[in-house]
Amino acid sequence: MPPNIKVDRRILEEIALSYGEYLQVIERLGREPNSVELGMIGALWSEHCGYKNSKPLLSLFPTGGPRVLVKAGEENAGAVDIGEGLSIVMKIESHNHPSAIEPYEGAATGVGGIVRDIFAMGARPIALLNSLRFGPLTEPRNRYLFGGVVAGIAGYGNCLGIPDVGGEVFFADTYSGNPLVNAMCVGLVRSDRIISARASEEGHLLLLVGADTGRDGIHGATFASVELSEASQERRPAVQVGNPFLEKLLMEACLELARSDIKVSVQDLGAAGMTSAAIESAAKGGMGIEIDVSKMPQREAGMTPYELMLSESQERMLVIVGADSVDDVKAIFGKWDLHSSVVGRVTGDGKARILDGSEVVADIPISLLTNPPTYRRAGVLSPAVAALQGYDFDSLTDISMNDVASILERLLGSPNIASKESVFRQYDHQVLINTVIGPGSDAAVLRIKGTKMGIALTTDGNGRLCYLEPYAGGAMTVAEAARNLVCVGAEPLALTNCLNFGSPERPEVYYQLEECIKGMSEACRVLGIPVISGNVSLYNESGDSAVYPTPVVGMLGLLDDLERRCSMGFKDEGDIILLLGDDGGVTGNPSGLAGSEYLSLVCGIVAGRPTIDLDKESALQRACLEAIGAGIVKSAHDPSEGGLLVAVAESCIAGGIGADLELHPSDGNRLDEALFGEKPSRIVVSVSPANLGEMETIAMRKGVPVLRLGTAGGDSLYVNREVRVALPILGKAWREGLESLTRNSLSGE
């Protein structure tokens, strides 16, 4: 240790700051920081707030587009123009570590935080979605986590009166020690009423609005930036506690403020609390701030400046307004029985000056706080994964037609494929009466009241694919999300993402992070879908292993005419079932088995090397979207998890009508891959016989192959007339697969 520098390493560990970074602080500050300054630096230099390991990679994402009004990183969330003077604001964020320690509050406050990001911009939250990952429900702790998380999402979202319209749940051993809980919120706002979080005028005042400040959530940002361990239970105080009823009042008050003519800036107090909210607002406006913590309403006695600046107490907002409008702002919040206190002012010196009455307890340049060191590391493909990529599928015995029915039932009952009704029936997805297609479909669809338009929303991710081939897996995540929107007739407009990975300090994890981002970026460019917001969650590890690399995409699509929407269920007897995108036959290319649910569930193997052709994907989506828009397609469904036969079975279940299929793999190709492989860039559609020719013409014009699979009708699913499974059997397997595992877990047992 250099002479005259004394620091307790345990303090640095508590705030997730390395010793080398501490030396950088001293060099840039010209002295050692005091305890308050060090706490603020630790919070804003944490991975959760500072993106030290991901910021250089995030610049690869395309962020602009003709409809983009607010780009990624500019404000609390991104915004896109949907026409008629309206915009959609959206973002997805993680609450993984808090949910691993305190599942109910961790998930609940994850919902609360993402909702505040949306109404901070003046947008009315109109939809919630989520993306969840857990270990197998055969283990008691995983059942406890699963039950608590679902209850937390339902408990908070239902109280706010925001419909939870979609999401996904996936189970794998890798998530046992570290579940993933990603929450997404979507809001609607007049395009000329979007509120900024920038503090851009010297002399404006800082109002702290909402709940009093307590000690809950202190070091929450740094907690989210370290690996979980046996000692993590000691971090329970770092998990925030939510009050959805107070948030409802706060939301309505902020929306009333947005409708007024008062010029304000609004920022949510989320990770790192007042430190992050005030510092980031000042940084965006190129200003400084002065805060007197003694003026902050306190829920607990004897709170220190350190605690007040770093508390992550929920349901609080920072409002920045001119002095002549303070009384008007206070009147609005007072109407909703909310406290509002002037706690500081905007300065022009570029510094963060924190007072406790007359005492200066911190005085530090904002540029230091908001510019942490960044790291561009050297990633390495894991030799173990390289071996899995070269797996010899010829060593795997193919199935026969005699195996098909039992495998299909097993797959439909797999928790990763089975109905998630036991989860989403706890969520209110009809409140606000905008939901046209709710949870359980390829994508949710909501009406935009007062217009003919609708929006479609989805969340997607597949950690297994990204583990086996990060570049292709990242691209496939974007492609699947877009494909799901296309299946309901929506044009994909923009996406938000949450990047869930292990420790970037491990070369194999950094490789996954970098390659996934590269693959996602390329898919965004080819498909023309900008990234408008997002979140990075690293250090998702427990013991000696990381979670699967799990980038989650939340995507928005637009339907110009809501009446042209499409659904996944077969509609009428005699309709022709087609596979768009197949290359001339139901092939048995082993790449389709790579990372598939069939391979994992039936064979007990996670192996192979997934691939995707993005140009073919783009052509497929354009063809399907045109056909739906022309009223040709009666149903459309993405055959992802489970493969082709599972997709057809799901369309049968959804429509209450059977199917008669003829599926014959080409000579030398595998039956298991043909029926259960998860090849991308395919969509199962149904059309009336009268529209078959027009469908084929559209596909031919786009260069998209079309394969006739069979016809819809009857009360069973037939395959080559050799296999017959009655619809009630299919439905029972699908509906009871997850239900049988969650009867007790959803009550937290």
Task: Provide an overview of this structure.
By secondary structure, this protein is α+β, with helices and mostly antiparallel strands. The strands form five sheets. Strands 8-10-7-11-9-12-13 form a seven-stranded mixed β-sheet. Strand 1 (68-70) and strand 2 (78-83) form a beta hairpin. The protein is globular.
Task: Quote the average pLDDT.
Answer: 93
User: How many strands in all?
Assistant: 28
Q: Please, how many helices? A: 26
Instruction: Quickly give the structural class.
Output: alpha+beta
**What percent of the residues sit in helical stretches (DSSP H or I)?**
25-40%
Shape: globular
Termini, distance in Å?
50 Å
Poorly predicted runs of 5 or more residues: none
Beta-strand portion reads: 15-25%
Strand neighbour order, sheet with most strands: 8-10-7-11-9-12-13
* Gyration radius, rounded: 26 Å
- Main beta sheet strand tally, sense and closure: 7 strands, mixed
Could you outline the blueprint of secondary structure elements for this entry?
Elements: H1 9-14, H2 19-29, H3 35-44, H4 47-50, H5 55-58, E1 68-70, E2 78-83, E3 86-94, H6 96-101, H7 103-119, E4 124-134, H8 140-160, E5 164-171, E6 180-190, E7 205-210, H9 220-223, H10 244-259, E8 264-268, H11 273-285, E9 288-292, H12 305-310, E10 316-321, H13 326-335, E11 339-347, E12 351-356, E13 359-365, H14 366-369, H15 383-389, H16 401-413, H17 421-424, E14 435-437, E15 444-447, E16 454-460, H18 463-468, H19 470-487, E17 491-500, H20 507-527, E18 531-537, E19 541-542, E20 545-546, E21 550-559, E22 576-580, H21 597-603, H22 614-629, E23 633-637, H23 644-655, E24 659-661, H24 671-676, E25 683-687, H25 692-702, E26 706-712, E27 716-719, E28 723-726, H26 727-742
Parallel strand pairs: 4-5, 9-12, 17-18, 24-27
Antiparallel strand pairs: 1-2, 2-3, 3-6, 4-6, 7-10, 7-11, 8-10, 9-11, 12-13, 14-15, 15-16, 16-21, 17-21, 19-20, 22-25, 22-26, 23-25, 24-26, 27-28
